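dumping the sequnces here before i forget
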Amino acid sequence: MSLPVGADYLSILRHLVALYDTGVTEGFSRDDVVYVARLARLDLEPSEVDLYAAQLGSILDHVAAVTGLDTTAVPATAHPLELANVLRPDTPGPTLPRDEVLSQAPHAEGGRFRVPPILGEAP
Amino acid sequence: MTENGSAARGWETVVGLEVHCELSTVTKLFCSCPNAFGSEPNTNVCPVCLGLPGSLPVLNARAVEFAMRIGTALGSSVEASVFHRKNYFYPDMPKDYQISQYDAPINVGGHIELADGTLVGIVRAHIEEDTGKTTHVGGGGRIHDADYSLVDYNRAGVPLVEIVSAPDIRSAEQARSYVTELRAILVATGTSDGRMEEGSLRVDANISVRRAGDAEYGTRSEVKNLNSLRSLGRAVDYEAARQIGILEAGGTVAQETRHWNEEEGRTSSLRSKEEAYDYRYFTEPDLVPLVPSAEEVAAVAAALGPLPAARRHRLAELVAADGAPAPVDQLATVVGLGLDDLVAAAAGAGADARLALARASNEAANRPDEARALDPAAFAELVKLEAAGKLSATQSKSVLAAMLEDGGEPAQIATRLGFEALDPAELEAAVDAAIAAHPAEWDRYRQGDAKVAQFLLGAVMRSTRGRANGKAVAALLEARRN
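..and the predicted 3d for all of it:
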């Protein structure tokens, strides 16, 4: 399945929906899921690993459909908005009251957030 | 093992440095919280730097300008850049990611020329936000034995430029020289105060060794916790010796992060991670690209004043006008602290350049902030008073200390401190009294024992409570001897 050059967003969307219905799930293994889950500190049941492998695989397949498009005439972009250089002046503004900030944390001590012991240095 | 010892056995040390530099902006990188050192914990925080849901970062224009200044000073190409999220779980960032630049940094390439003429390549100098400060409680403050940790987010979101060098550094001395030169450039461009002791400048060293002549680099370790130039130099020597020891014993060096312990003078492996870090970088969707125009880049370059190497040269010429070479250490100190304009202004006002340089590199250098705010005319006047013998060196230093403390005119301060210069008759009387009081010493002095001169000088200084001019006393003693 491929889209014509210059396809509008709506036709791309229709294309992706059509792909989703085919249930393509190759391209994301159980090992990939286990690895990503560990990076995200998620503890998954084996059945969840299978479920997410299938779902993440189909999402990746949808995105991969874009590679089927001929984009030679499309300039590369770093952001969907056609904006650059959004800046603010270096002038100070209000800060939050510390008591209010710390009251939102499970534990605080001496004006600081108190967290469980850390294993290892900052990456 | 010294560098020479390892070199004699055919080893070469290879070092690349990553320097994190805090920018001297008024506010943080992505929010309007004050960027201030030493505030009460968690008082400079807001929804953005606390990572509260719904908050959005907006880039600080001055931080961008400062980054461009740094890149321009390093000879980098200033390019269009993009921000990325670097994802990791650690409580120093409440968002669980740090906004940094990844594959499209603002400054690419460049070099720093060391004092010895060596060119060290710059790979990149990109913008990122600083992290919060963690304090480990219990277990003697050691991270692995801590009972819990405390976090202060005042520093979270403070703008940083990370400057990554090529592995072109070959010794501990060059590593220190590189950081010294980089710090001078940062101060000269007005982008950072460069204070290592306050963490404004933080250095990580990638260190490896190889057989001299090898084309391939050896396996490197990354050494963290280098809080001073001294630590950096010691760590480079220690780590090179450690790696050589392993290789000479037939072992292999592990690629790992190591922690420098200043008290023990050694590095140690951090607890091995369960896996290598995978930061899952992706484009920061809340920030748009940064695309400086050619005009902006040119404007930054045009506004950049002379860089440290050129300023050292200018100052050296001023000082060496009297025929003797300028003291290299004093030049580096004064330019490094941005006090060269003060010295040049004093010289321009007719003060002795060499004496002005000496005062600026010692007494004034201890309080660089106050020294940079000194009235150049008052500083010039002080140097003139001392050069004319109206203030002794000791008195001059005391007056300068008072000027750094409260400002003011040197002559008035001297009067207030009771530093009226002795009139010649008083001085002669004091010298004669000292001679009369110490006949044995005076005899030894007359027989040519030069060391006794210091004793007699001390006696005159005591009797005049430091008001005598040392050179004038020495001249009088000499005159009395003949």
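Chain B touches chain A through 66 residues (CB under 8 Å).
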